[in-house]
Queue: 3 jobs
Job 1
Amino acid sequence: MATEKKIPYKIYLEESEMPQNWYNMRADMKNKPAPMLNPGTHEPMTAEELSGVFCADLVAQELDNDTAFVPIPEEIRSFYKMYRPSPLVRAYCLEEKLQTPAKIYYKFEGNNTSGSHKLNSAIAQAYYAKKQGLKGVTTETGAGQWGTALSMACAYLGLDCKVYMVKVSYEQKPFRREVMRTYGASVTPSPSMETEIGRKILEAHPGTGGSLGCAISEAVEKAVTSEGYRYVLGSVLNQVLLHQSVIGLEAKAAADKYGIKFDTIIGCAGGGSNLGGLIAPFMGQKLRGEADYEIIAVEPASCPSFTRGKFAYDFCDTGMVCPLAKMYTLGSDFIPAPNHAGGLRYHGMSPVLSQLYDDGLMSAVSVKQTDVFQAAEAFARCEGILPAPESSHAIRVAIDEALKCKETGEEKTILFGLTGTGYFDMVAYEKFHDGLMEDYIPTDEELAIGLSKLPQV
Amino acid sequence: MATEKKIPYKIYLEESEMPQNWYNMRADMKNKPAPMLNPGTHEPMTAEELSGVFCADLVAQELDNDTAFVPIPEEIRSFYKMYRPSPLVRAYCLEEKLQTPAKIYYKFEGNNTSGSHKLNSAIAQAYYAKKQGLKGVTTETGAGQWGTALSMACAYLGLDCKVYMVKVSYEQKPFRREVMRTYGASVTPSPSMETEIGRKILEAHPGTGGSLGCAISEAVEKAVTSEGYRYVLGSVLNQVLLHQSVIGLEAKAAADKYGIKFDTIIGCAGGGSNLGGLIAPFMGQKLRGEADYEIIAVEPASCPSFTRGKFAYDFCDTGMVCPLAKMYTLGSDFIPAPNHAGGLRYHGMSPVLSQLYDDGLMSAVSVKQTDVFQAAEAFARCEGILPAPESSHAIRVAIDEALKCKETGEEKTILFGLTGTGYFDMVAYEKFHDGLMEDYIPTDEELAIGLSKLPQV
């Protein structure tokens, strides 16, 4: 069949064609991402400083700006084979519905129980923790996708997994919590009485529903004060983009196999884990001058770090205990208005992607929530898959780009990342169906508050 | 690659290897399933009688005991390509955990938004309705998997879809309801004021939570009293087993491609749609004397139609408006105690499977709910996938069979059907985690009540 090169609806690579290495975009970047700084001294964080919080191998990956191809350990490749390769799908039905001359492909990462691409980095981080002989890891989770992925990876490897889940999500998303418990994780509503910072916050704000920033602080405190534990994070970090490059590498291998050339690549962007992974090998070609692609980051209008933030050093967490990173940010105490894409509510953006964006190698657009859900529903009805709200940001812009082609007659080939499924987001879909969904766009004055508090570096 | 015959973790057929025909076990059965009878006259239902309720092409399939291979229309094959082939997966990790010499495979049908195999028949039934020029279809749904699948199929074909959802599920499973609404279906809590039978029931039992039997009666009434509508059903019927044969045909093609020979085939059984589909081509070989397989139906101890029911004519619905079918049954007014596998709570069993079971061509076991969830959790932790409670009945027995092999040293090759995912069943998982799940096993006296009311034919 392969010799005929007939393009199937869904392209699955053979196991033997799956990537053997992750690809590190930093190796090909002329302007490297700025180093993380110690929040006290404003000096670059050393490997030694970082290794109190993160596993040793992951610290090395975090700081490695030079190695282009990092071998994926055999054990991780075995785990990948349980749910990968993910399919590269031609959206024939969507194209027909839009009556567009554009060809639309999506790389679908939702066919695993965590429901998203998060598992690609969760298994890697859990593997290195296990390799280091640790007992377990700690992390925070908001909507719950990252926590679920990490629970699955830890269950597989027999590692303990402590998840601090933002209290309001813990109470409102009991199903996500139960999935994590099914995988043996302990899930604590944050803020909790288990940590000093939790107790301090509860004293100051009794009855608070918590925040991601607080949960990060608790998870970090728990890791550094527990023998045999380290902290892990599901986005933003360089190491996470490295692991997620498996998405783009598979997409490129599948496209190359059938002679498909993409013109435009679109991904949603919260902390950047999906977008950074999807674009990795394509951006690599672009950085090396081998090919050109239009690369578009899509963010919610309610949390527009690329399109309305500043490129500056800022704290990665609200509690200001984590290192400073140079990134597009809205300020570490920016609280986005409630929107239903929990994975896109982070105040900052991956330092790697921030540098690439600042260097003009990619563009960004922000989209309104109701427009996103309209695209999500249209997509679900013709392509079958019920998309996550996060992923639907990319669907929105893919549809918009395809409609532009309809006007101009261009036959662009578009790739977008379909990061996950929306089974746990039906409350948001319900609001949309009932006409109760609102669009939140912060005013310039509101954004100015967070931006005025950036640390002086 | 194919020439090397290295067996991958997950076997995906090429599109060109996907089945072109469904397989109809009845053609090879010496003892055909008994015909459905008119509930008034006790005469076999004619095509004409049936075509007031069902689409014409589906009536023909329902009554056709002779044609072995039925071509799958091109349009349905196109739709299948959107979410099929489903993978045949080797459960390496589960085998290792059990330390069994058995080889365990599962055919995973959960990688589509309806979350189960139900879509295989939903698209077929919607296709024939569309082909007949109908406006839409009506159906009932309990837990919601069938309703979701039908909504997806109707959205794709532009058909109207009216779902009567058991009121208690409508209220307790708002997420399922919203998925159906996302696909444009109208979802009505049953009993409703929309139908005569609904109004009658509401008058007699104000505030009732409804039942599947009542929802069936409302859906049938709506279909026969609405211009351009027919009724569709997701299990039990001969036509449904025909459509679901795609599961077994793919499994067999994938196994044949890599030289895998199954000894034991295991599936959960409610109305029989999954089991009948999974075993179809293997049972065909057995019926033709070409090969032998041990085939095991697994049912919940709380609703044991095969293991404790009678093989007799009975009503398919509680309202006694549907035809009589000869099947293993617990009596049409048997109400199973609450168990969390909504898809396995039907009082009867597919007439085809009932005949095969009665002829000694397959065996059946019943399992307790807590044992099922223990197996589900063990499976999730090592294989990644969060299984539906229904599917977990098959997991339980696959594990038990593999553990027997560990004792005897036999190297059996086991195939089981993993029909779907458990994302919408976390309330049940939560009860299990919290030690609040109970096992219900009806007493002989309780069963005798339903069995004493079988119609005299």
Job 2
Amino acid sequence: MTTQKILGNEVSAQIMEEVRLDVEKLKSERGVQAQVALVMVEGDPASQVYLESAKKSALKIGIAVLERRFPATITTETLVASIKVISADESVHAILCQLPLPSHLDEAKVIEAIAPSKDVDCVHPYNQGLLAMGGEKARFFPCTPFGVCELLKRYGYSVSGKQVVVLGRSSIVGRPLSIMLSTKGSDATVTLCHSRTQDLQSVCRSADFLFAAIGKPKFVTRDFVKEGAVVVDVGTNRILGDDGKYLLVGDVDFQSIVGHASAATPVPGGVGPMTRAMLMKNIFSAASL
Amino acid sequence: MTTQKILGNEVSAQIMEEVRLDVEKLKSERGVQAQVALVMVEGDPASQVYLESAKKSALKIGIAVLERRFPATITTETLVASIKVISADESVHAILCQLPLPSHLDEAKVIEAIAPSKDVDCVHPYNQGLLAMGGEKARFFPCTPFGVCELLKRYGYSVSGKQVVVLGRSSIVGRPLSIMLSTKGSDATVTLCHSRTQDLQSVCRSADFLFAAIGKPKFVTRDFVKEGAVVVDVGTNRILGDDGKYLLVGDVDFQSIVGHASAATPVPGGVGPMTRAMLMKNIFSAASL
């Protein structure tokens, strides 16, 4: 069996171009300049990578950026107050807050200061709730699961009526993905597995579509995959290579499933580039409300 | 195989007595009189049955009741404004709104007027979101799924590590139940099935615990059930009996699984009485915050 490689780079670039045109039209037709605010707290540079990359992408497609950086010593109260000011600012349509925050900050309180209508990362409980209630009224979808669904759609794959297994129950990927796939319109029959699932290989082997988001490098091998299944790798693990350099590897041992799965996403170059594109799509949605 | 009957009446009565003592203690030790507000709109009497029954139970165990009844002609704006007044009233700890509302009212707007800290029915998107995000920070659990989990617990059944199938994806029963069962602490591996699931019988037969909440009278028969499985019937369907009277039947054909399942909840007398008890527990929780 030939295994089709599902690649996110081209699709992601295509979506970015679509959003760029939408942003331009919003400006020329309604006079609205889309703007995203980035909220960062000094400290761990690694946790700022996502926001730095969002900044670059936004500017590239005509979205204005408001950057708010705070010293590591900031208190929860001050950060909450600052985010409330941005939430009330009508020129700002979307707010991204660096997560995780330094441990002395009350993350839940900070997140709840973001106006739900500007919560393009879909981290506010209100938006997670709209999603959990069936998604028909959801304003935003979390960017990574949203990107996964969009990538499959653009490649012509439909999960409707299929047996789907999602491996990993994190609140930003596994769980929202399992919800999105099983809502009306998607109509998959979804099993949500996790580290404590018994007989994990055989449960995974029942899947027509297997989504790996468990955060364990190359964890999913051929033994987990039914012949002809579609395998989507949402893992992004950094491991030390033989040459002493860090490598990005997924949750799936790609080589072991080649010739066995009917299609699969590699890491890097599969699902990864989709997250940023869907974030831009969410920012545009927020601006065009 | 003997099939154990899992009965909710006794357990429910026991929980009601526990809550009664808690309510009494809250009053004597902290001077707080627990109070629930009931919001009803004239029209369909059937949809008021739940609130009438809640009223009776609350008064029986020492919870005060504030009743607000509105004519069928009320507008969304007036109802929202009234609920906001109740939400701001510090003497009221819990708010129940009759659902479904008459169709001329915007139900989502009305629900969002309920303060999340008083939303003991767990219908506000904010509370559904806390649940969907893993449930560790959830203030309230929806009463029926909560009652199902509590009933199993008090009978000594644990779903941890087990294969669980939930049949039905409604936002008040099936989906929140599937989320609650698969969170850390519960640790079941959960498959959420629905009317469009293919090969439904065989998926259901993989379950160690099968939860039926699909709203189809006696839909689940022996063919759906693995030998020795535990079957929980969350269905409440009213059908016309041979004698011309209405009968309450579940989603499970109980007689067909006797001697085949290791345990099962009958309808009536199974899960049903638990909902009201858990509602009382939620009202107490709200009052004791």
Job 3
Amino acid sequence: MCVEEAFSKLCLSEKGSDDAIGVKSLVFKPKTAKSAVPVPIVVVALQSTTTPSPLVAQATSLKDPRLARDELFQSFFKCNSAKEFSVAYLANAESPFHLLVDRQLEALDESAMLQLNEAAFIQKSELVAYLGKFESQKQCVDFGQEVAKPDAKKKQEAAAGAASAALEDAKLIGITVDKALDFPGWYQQILTKGEMLDYYDVSGCYILRPASYAIWEQIQQWFDSKIKALGVQNAYFPMFVSSRVLEREKDHIEGFAPEVAWVTKAGSSDLEEPIAIRPTSETVMYPYYAKWIRSYRDLPLKLNQWNSVVRWEFKHPQPFLRTREFLWQEGHTAHLTVEDAKQEVLDILDFYAGVYEELLAVPVVKGKKTEKEKFAGGDFTTTCEGYIPQTGRGIQGATSHHLGQNFSKMFNVSVENPLGSDHPKLFVYQNSWGLSTRVIGVMVMIHSDNKGLVIPPRVSQYQAVVIPVGITKKTTDAERSNIHASAKAIEDRLKKAGIRAFGDYNDNYTPGWKFSQYELKGIPIRIELGPKDIEKSQVIVVRRNDSRKYTVQLNELETRIPEILEELQQDLFLKAKELFDTHRVIVEDWKDFVPNLNRKNVILSPWCGVMECEEDIKDSSAKKDDGEELEQDEKSPSMGAKSLCIPFEQPELKQGQKCIKCSRPAIQYCMFGRSY
Amino acid sequence: MCVEEAFSKLCLSEKGSDDAIGVKSLVFKPKTAKSAVPVPIVVVALQSTTTPSPLVAQATSLKDPRLARDELFQSFFKCNSAKEFSVAYLANAESPFHLLVDRQLEALDESAMLQLNEAAFIQKSELVAYLGKFESQKQCVDFGQEVAKPDAKKKQEAAAGAASAALEDAKLIGITVDKALDFPGWYQQILTKGEMLDYYDVSGCYILRPASYAIWEQIQQWFDSKIKALGVQNAYFPMFVSSRVLEREKDHIEGFAPEVAWVTKAGSSDLEEPIAIRPTSETVMYPYYAKWIRSYRDLPLKLNQWNSVVRWEFKHPQPFLRTREFLWQEGHTAHLTVEDAKQEVLDILDFYAGVYEELLAVPVVKGKKTEKEKFAGGDFTTTCEGYIPQTGRGIQGATSHHLGQNFSKMFNVSVENPLGSDHPKLFVYQNSWGLSTRVIGVMVMIHSDNKGLVIPPRVSQYQAVVIPVGITKKTTDAERSNIHASAKAIEDRLKKAGIRAFGDYNDNYTPGWKFSQYELKGIPIRIELGPKDIEKSQVIVVRRNDSRKYTVQLNELETRIPEILEELQQDLFLKAKELFDTHRVIVEDWKDFVPNLNRKNVILSPWCGVMECEEDIKDSSAKKDDGEELEQDEKSPSMGAKSLCIPFEQPELKQGQKCIKCSRPAIQYCMFGRSY
């Protein structure tokens, strides 16, 4: 189609109307090697829509797009200049380009009249039909959304001209960024293209699509049955807290106040006093614990809720890891004795470690937080800590807190002394513990790869996809029907055996296209069935994580498939565990501390337990050139190392061992690392 | 203990401190018959706490408490006057009184110094110890809470001097209000004393305690598996909506705008623009449906979320029925064809009816809403409608909406035409459907009685309680152990058989006390086991709803108990169904319309389908003296009748039948009623 034809197809009209809506066509050129053929980005948008280049970059995953010069218009679209350019010239392109269409434009009525330039008008439906010719390159973009900013440091590094992280053989539909080279960009793509999550038009909030919510449901089911066996009951407390109640525990509110979202209006009326949205529910619940707990026979009281909380973080939000609203469970229990309470803290921590290790195939280290890092207002905090190999950073997995009697004294949660009413009342011992959807982000970061998501079978929404193969032009209709029917029969048998399976029998796509699709989405195994397999009464099974192939006899389907899924689950865990184990190093000399951090390790060091020393370690490890000659690692952050936890499993402390940083005697090993 | 002793016990001191906290002791007298012995209400509160009499009334469930005159101080406490009165005089009381202690006072440090009058000071711990002597009469009250107001009409009626609704034989711990005489007061007590729900310090919000949340979990499980079988997937969308998106569909937002809660601040910063909390998620979700649905192969898209939404109602809130935050599920589906969409609307409505009839034992009538009552912005709304016998009012149960293409056109949710890209794009057909925790309120209103909650076994948190009986002073320790062990063995067998059972083996309470407790809480059956039962290898089973007794042989436990539970479930449904069926009457003459409403009926009448006529019916039925001589029924509201639904199951329309109200021809029967 030449440009003249295109113009005629466009049904352009010189008769506009006064309320025609202005539309602009812009061309961006991403940063590419001089020798490479450029892949320009055409943006078709309402005149009134601003189309910032960072959003263009985000939509295409291309680096530094800039408005193109006339040379590019001439060489690529055979159009004299940017000024003359219109969508008609798209027909002249001889190699691929990106086409971004403004969602606001797409949202217009089909009958709307658009103005392309001073003299050219077109009906929206016509423009849409025309752009439809470039459907495979087209993408609809919401320019109203906020740009997902990589954190500042990353941005500098990216700008510093590191090798492009773009994957050479990636198609637009797949992942176009290399996990090893641009981890944040990869993470964002893997989540959106894998259809786990979508960005939302309120910054810091994200949509959990079925693929990720189903993982959350698996976790809920597992954890819920564990805590119910401990006697925990579920309940639901309101999401709103009055400021009076929220601010009752001072240390606690200090920890949360800067992030509290306030409702001040309902309809068109101002509320008499602002009402907070819970950032966590201690102060929501404990006034009622005080009311309900009158006697030691009311103890223990163990409640849990599955809900969402809001922490209006002003730091750069990140899907799953740091979001302004997130889903979690929060357990709040009250006990007569401190022993009973402390035992539960550890029981729950084991369940949290179980969520990571048994369900998500993510290894964690259990331990206790330092005084500096513990929960605001509590006695002590236990935690399970994970590790992200690409960044070498630790990540807090989930925490289980013992609150002691601090809140019970503040909220007067007390019971009659079992010894009699002439003995003083007893304040209860309390715990609180929470696990959030952050776990899903950690899982994705650890297992997934450049082909897409890798999801452990125990939690994935679907465990297996059945795909007919070997259908060619020579295949007769009867043969095709037979293959489809056999594949469907396999799907049915798997479902009956309790395996979350589905089939893709769409003849419009090649098996290869389907393979890529389900690799992108992280379906743990695919099951291929072709004419030869039918002859041999077998299927071919391919694992998502490493493409390992198995031939499975049909009569062994119900036993072998669960075994293969289970092996896959174990292999994911073992691989991740090896990476964590080999990057958790014991360091006893401060001179080795920073170099080891820079080698993407977390560090176990003898430590004195003093808060000032902890702060000193963080400050001292923030500089990269600590007198050492360091391997240059541009991707490693220059942030200092925080204490991650004091692991329960301790290396043996040598007699007279000094603290890694100061001259005080060491009292334990502490795990330090850069962290999320 | 005489008053002198009491004074000495009080350890009063004349040495105060400047920061001593003022404490007041007030006495209220509730409205009682002149002949009756008054049961005064003593309120001990911080000087700074206001103690409004409606809160005193609410806490004690007593009518119209007024500050007592000196006569009562003299006769009851042997104290000269209100002015001289202090807590020391409580020791003089010879008959029961209520003692309400301010939660603010209880929350003070044990060491706080209190000032009782000009010259008397006491340490808080001392006062608490003293008040502990009256523990059985004592109650801690949060005077900061809002009074749960009965609706205005009820209040007038109550004030008009109807017979007191107080139950004569009710103990303080049980329900003290008669369901038949003071339905709103009864409803409030049954929920709070049955421990289903508690009032919360943010008005219109309530706490769902485990007993009600467990019912919600049963409903979730049942409904979730039904919709998943239809191909619905769960997801989670953010609770926040930008005003731009919220206001995109005009009819829709008009319906919700007055009730939207707005977040305008985070921490101490004002947000750039206010962000709404979702009142429902159509506008939250559909921009993303537009993004995700590109081809007809992406259809149908069926998503559901279990979440909470906020509608800041300014009408009188009511637990479960009208609350500012509530839990629900909202399903949102997009279909290629209108037939597919409409079929789903009905499938979902059947599930909703199933939740009511099969799980909650509540009969409903399925039908379609009139144009006036349908969902704002949708094409049509289907509904299941319940009936509350005590008030004779209908109640909307749950609704399933067909949205047509209205939202899809507004949000541009469209697909390529399967006929080819030269055919116009197709806008999808959408549905939305929701069921909320309101269902629990309806269930409670229908089945429960003056002894407490009655909960259908299929949804109740616990289905059976095992209680040892027949233990007397003569029982030896060995016998007692044997009874306990046998009871525990029964509990274990029941649990193993999948029955949600527990046992109460606490020797400090009598079986009778326990019976009342578990009747209050609505445990469907209690299983009694005493020495004679052990001899005969049997247990006695008593049904909560009607005290019917069964003797069950131990060897039939696992078969008979589930049968008894199932019969109980059916009997609850049949009883409720009979009440609904006998109060759903066909009326064909307008003159019989209002009298039938006043007899607590809902009405099926031939109707023209015209909106003005519907409004006329409402206005005309609002007056009670419609030219008819009506049975005086003080409890029936004077509100007009709304259309509840056009039932799917229609009486046959006679030829030439006129509308019940106007002269137009009737086109169908419509169900009218006063309603919630």
